[in-house]
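# step 3/5: fold
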Amino acid sequence: MTTVGFLGLGTMGSGMAARLLGSDAEVLVWNRGKEPVAELVAAGAKEAPEARDALAADLSFSMLANDAAVDAVLSAEHLTAGTTHVNMASISPRFATRLEDRFAKAGVRYAAAPVLGRPAVAAAGQLNILAAGPAEVLEAAKPYFELLGKQTWHFGETPSIANSIKALCNYILIQAHQALGETIAMAERLDVDPGLFVELLTSTFVGGPAYTVYGPIIATQSYTPAAFTMTLGRKDLDLLEQVAEATSTHVPSLPALKAVYERALQEGFADYDWSAIAEVTRRDLLR
């Protein structure tokens, strides 16, 4: 029987690991906190005592919070030569390149496959997976991608490209949050119901999850519990800035969005959903 490891059982990872229990493989899970591990073991997974044990599986996946967490968990001393790993976290392009080199030196096959989707989407196996890496790695991961997502998008053989594309996608989402925040604030000041305004937008020329999901959240100020926090959204602006630098692209809207995020964090929104940047305009916090 094939053994598949999964590391990182946060709001996204726990649902993703649960999906892998539908495969024919033995699923070995690891997480710093033990509560989500216990839940998955009760559902049929096996616990990896240490991160290195999950990474020693024939094929392993990880969904960790940021560069620092990935650096610590996927450290060189935790890797086992001859195995295959797919990193599904959103990490910086610069760090992604260093990570590729680390895995190559350790003799571990490596691909990146960050995802688009909120926790409920992950639990339902409806993620969009942005994959890049050697063809044989992506082929090995394919049966598991099919359990995790509704579509896998291939971006070549250089893993860091997938991380850059994820940064671009998240930047579009952040811009959508800001556009919704600004226009909803003006609609409210015209005494128009924000829910009606969002319904107008999403029923006519502005479709897609960026508006159909986040429009109602902003209209009703339903920012907690957060599926993706403001702190993580601010991290994504730094990732986008790295892509802009690497591609020599001037991004005029980036400084303005960074200012909005900084003010939102100063006002205590760190643990709110990242779409709560809308409140900066709604409450005139930058005046």
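# step 4/5: annotate
The CA atoms of residues 84 and 151 lie 21 Å apart.
# step 5/5: archive (pending)
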